[in-house]
Design a protein that fits this description.
It is a multi-pass membrane protein. It catalyses: a ubiquinone + n Na(+)(in) + NADH + H(+) = a ubiquinol + n Na(+)(out) + NAD(+). Composed of six subunits; NqrA, NqrB, NqrC, NqrD, NqrE and NqrF. Helix content is 63%, strand content 0%. The longest helix has 35 residues. Helix 2 runs antiparallel to helix 4, helix 5 runs parallel beside helix 7 and helix 10 runs parallel beside helix 14. It folds into 2 domains: 163 residues, no CATH class; 124 residues, no CATH class. It is mainly α.
Length: 380
């Protein structure tokens, strides 16, 4: 690493002000700060010293994603090859199918990020470190790579850079990518075949739990299968156990909001209980046990890694309770009422992303009014 540090320091003057490649300084600085901790300090004015910065936050989230990622790649092999194989047979099969998706996601996304940084003359933001991994983790394993690339382009340009880049976007970029793919290439985003790539085992079905329920049939998977992750689905969403391990890290480090997580669970449980009380002879989703809704599909993954996005979520304390609760309500509502969208979590989070600023606005206005009333009582 010392050798690499010396080489970067040797060519750095070319990217400084007045240097030959001054215009491309943002791209160089982005690579430099990604590889090494910045070696400069604030020279003017007051500044805060803290052990956490944007890069450390993003790397922590990536680490929290690793359990679900590793298990998801194993599960891709397991769902395709069936029983009777070794761990590494499943894992290598899944890794071979999934790694190109990661390469395309990071290659296309970071390419756009660097281009925008050079064009605008600002430093490259670290926000895409997480988004670049989230996007392939919520896509079907059989999605053609060119469709994935177009989804990434749409998400980065219109879902993020159009608003000013990292920290300015009102929608979660990863979910924007999935929404674009869903509405643009629906046959590749739903059905029984997209979740199982090139199956080599006889009798393997790629039908997801929510897909079978929406089709009026009872799923062949138990709640234990759903919790452990032995079910078809995208790489990130199958194992609730692995997702909970990541959630524990995010909560321990204070990066994710426990208020959003708990309120979202409460909202989903309430709506699930309501639908169970209503019941139906034709809609199996109405009869699906409320607590199993919390294990099925992408609910857990969306709850931990999407709903808690610190940029697109509500910022006020009370607003987080309202925001999370409504996500849980709408996620189950969309699942049950709209048979064309049996997942529901993605749309619920995007919907509440739009209303998060409004929620915060009214929370703040309510606090101001209460303080004014207290002030009037004091002065009376």
């Amino acid at each position: 690493m010392n050798f690499l540090r010396k080489q970067l320091d040797k060519i750095k003057p070319n990217f400084d002000k007045g240097g030959k490649f001054e215009k491309y300084a943002p791209a160089f600085n982005g690579i430099d700060t990604f590889l090494f901790v910045p070696n400069h300090t604030t020279k003017y004015g007051a500044h805060i010293r803290d052990g956490i910065d944007l890069k450390r936050v993003m790397i922590t989230v990536v680490i929290a994603l690793l359990p679900a990622l590793i298990f998801g790649m194993w599960n891709v092999g397991y769902q395709n090859m069936g029983d009777g194989k070794e761990f590494w047979d499943y894992f290598i099969f899944g890794a071979i199918r999934f790694m190109p998706m990661i390469i395309v996601s990071y290659g296309v996304g970071l390419g756009i990020e660097f281009a925008y940084a050079v064009f605008r003359g600002h430093d490259v933001n670290e926000g895409y470190l997480v988004t670049g991994l989230l996007i392939p983790m919520i896509m079907p394993i059989d999605l053609p790579l060119w469709m994935l690339a177009l989804s990434v382009i749409f998400a980065v340009i219109l879902g993020k850079e159009a608003f000013g880049g990292t920290g300015m976007n009102i929608l979660n970029p990863a979910l924007v990518a999935r929404a674009f793919a869903l509405f643009s290439y629906a046959p590749y985003m739903s059905g029984n075949t997209v979740w199982v790539a090139d199956s080599v085992a006889d009798g393997v079905s790629g039908e997801t739990i929510l897909g079978s329920l929406a089709g009026g049939t009872t799923p062949a998977y138990s709640w234990f299968d759903m919790f452990m992750g032995y079910v078809p689905g995208s790489v990130g969403e199958t194992s609730v156990l692995m997702i909970l391990i990541g959630a524990a890290l995010l909560l321990f480090t204070g990066i994710a909001s426990w208020r959003i997580m708990i309120s979202c669970l409460l909202g989903a449980a309430l709506m699930g209980l309501l639908f169970n009380a209503i019941g139906s002879e034709t809609n199996e989703l109405l009869n699906f046990p409320w607590w199993q809704h919390l294990l099925a599909g992408g609910f857990a993954f969306g709850l931990v890694f999407m709903a808690t996005d610190p940029v697109s979520a509500a910022q006020t304390t009370k607003g987080k309770w309202i925001y999370g609760f409504l996500i849980g309500i709408f996620a189950i509502l969309i699942r049950v009422v709209n048979p064309t969208l049996p997942e529901g979590m993605m749309m619920a989070i995007l919907l509440m992303n739009v209303f998060a600023p409004t929620i915060d606005h009214y929370v703040v206005e309510g606090n101001i009014k209460r303080r004014k009333k207290r002030l009037q009582k004091v002065n009376a």
